[in-house]
């Protein structure tokens, strides 16, 4: 359905609706004075570091949009390999902010970016190409989608840190499903001389249910929708489990077929 395909302008209102809901939940969690320095599911990060991280990345988006709108220049993309270290540095550099300052700044950044996304027209949603600090030129629709990743997954990280049972929002997971293949594609790191791996992924349920054929090896990762019954192994997920697995938050999924192939595939990725 087009309203659940965030690459299409028809999904804009639905995507922004879900992003706003996830952002409000995140801000409510992060605004609890008793949680500010509590641990999260992100190793080495407290709640305040998640807030600092989203400030850091959101303000980097403004640099890209300002360059496009004003004809300015941005530095060359840094690449995804350095993201783990660079994002850690960016988040922790903002520990000097107290909780009220950080939450206020983040809310202001969020409101500003949502206004920018609301203003995107049908031609700009896919046609406006905005430089990303790490990934280089990307269509504009990626930026509200990145906000959904940040607010949705990092809300999960805060809740996970409490030790209470919880889950990922169905609407957020559904919208993120197609982008998890891009995440895998961007973070594939097969060892030298690795054997090519062919595997199927089935998403069972949700608005982006379907099956995909994946080939991964020294040449990178390629994927396409299609039947998967003829492949050596398949992985079955619900949308939330798929998103959390792709982000390295959990080891989920049901393996059918060659377990060794699935194991090799699931360990091809570096974390960002």
From TrEMBL:
Residue runs in coiled coils: none
Annotated Mycothiol-dependent maleylpyruvate isomerase metal-binding domain residues: 21-159
Pfam families assigned to the protein according to its UniProt record, in alphabetical order: MDMPI_N (PF11716)
InterPro entries (UniProt xref): DinB/YfiT-like, Maleyloyr_isom, MDMPI_metal-binding
Domain of life: Bacteria
Name the UniProt record assigns to this protein: Mycothiol-dependent maleylpyruvate isomerase metal-binding domain-containing protein
Species the sequence originates in: Phytohabitans aurantiacus
Lineage of producing organism: Bacteria, Bacillati, Actinomycetota, Actinomycetes, Micromonosporales
